Amino acid sequence: MHTNDYREITAAVITVSDTRTEETDKGGQAVMDHLKDSKIETAVYQIVKDDFEEIQSAVTAALKQVDVVITTGGTGVAKRDVTIEAVRPLMDKEMEGFGEIFRYLSYTEDVGTRAILSRAFCGTKDQTVVFSIPGSVGAVNLAMKKLITQEVFHIVHELNK
To answer: TM spans, by residue (predicted)?
Structure first.
């Protein structure tokens, strides 16, 4: 099936950062640009602090509004990076292959062995798919171009069978 064979879907983009503003959120803007290029409407966009409860609250609210939630930032190994820890318990299922392939692509195309520091997550809750990706523009472009926009329509279709 091609993208045109699927129904239209909507997305939420949540940037996790203590420092970014709408003007400086290049990663979040890159996500929205890729979504627009794929004919996916961004229905929700917000920036939340690197805070477990704030992240969970934003994702929980978005789950009720859209077909796909994409978080950027807060996926590193620093103590304040808690996006994945906040998102994972909200999910019904995890798609481990997303993080595995993201790291593989990062390793081969971009960062070499530093890819072991790269954390990326994909899970589903009811009929919504959630992706948590690093906030750097390079990581966003890689995840969006090579993985998310390639499979998101199919994933949402499968979740709504």
So the answer is: none
pLDDT, tens only, 48-79: 999 999 999 999 999 999 999 999 999 999 99
Query: How far is residue 98's CA from residue 76's CA, in Å, rounded to a whole number?
Result: 16
Rounded CA separation 119/142 (Å):
13
3-state secondary structure (DSSP) of residue 23? coil
Establish how many alpha carbons lie within 13 A of residue 104's alpha carbon, considering only the half-sphere containing its beta carbon.
8
Strands 68-72 and 93-94: what pairing? Answer: unpaired
Helix axes 26-37, 149-159, angle to 10 degrees: 70
pTM metric for this prediction: 0.95
3-state secondary structure of 15: strand
The class level of CATH for 3-159 reads alpha beta
